[in-house]
Amino acid sequence: MPPDPVTPRDREAARAARRRPCRTTDPPLPNAAHGDSSPEWERLRERLWGQRPMTAVGGRVQLIVPLRAAYGASVPVKVAARLPQTEALHVRRLSLLVDKNPSPVAAVLDLGVDAGQADLETRLRVDEYSHVRVVTEWSDGELHTDSRYVKVSGGCSAPPNRDRLNEIGRTALRLPDGPHYDQPTTAEVQVVHPNDTGFELNQLTVMYIPPHFVRSIRLRYREGGVERRIFDADLDFSVSENPLLRFRFVPHGPGELVAEVEDTKDGRFRGSLQVG
What we know:
disordered N terminus
């Protein structure tokens, strides 16, 4: 099992960085190609996966990110797996990373076979010109990766929307296209939450807003007296405000889709949706 992607030492470093500009020490790569490496990526790869080989060209996963995003605090990211989830071969873990963010490991999802297809859509904060990467670990032990270079900045320090603080934790699930029994069905979970990074400045007090963000989302589908795991997601503040995950799961009949959410202030929230 790989080490925990974000260690307590990483957390402390991120907190200490709140009072300095939200930038890394390595220079930006304004003209980098999508498949290029970076000093940050080399360090991350060594720490998280050691010397294990990764397939990047013609691999089992594709990452779709705009080259120039409109807003650094909300960059759309889509992961598409090229193979379905089966008992014989499936994605066990999916990691999303932003090389030059203060906390580069944005999300780590442990997936079950009942996800049907290891596809994921979300929105990330990108603080400066950087590569966004996905790494998938498959049940046969192989690692497959893809990357895209994004030209945008300011994602970590953009002022959050403070209009819905009374609704923090409200968790909603929906099926955009309805249920499709015995085949991958698209679903969404969204949590109302500022996902404060610790780098945003309060314009009234001229002080930094303390970090407060969604730490985990657990998705289960309950049908016929059986609870099936869809995914367990560990998140960081590199995920945008009001975190939204669009994913797949395979319902075999009517049931209940349940999301359990926890944030960094030990807030615990729950949402559910009756299916069928």
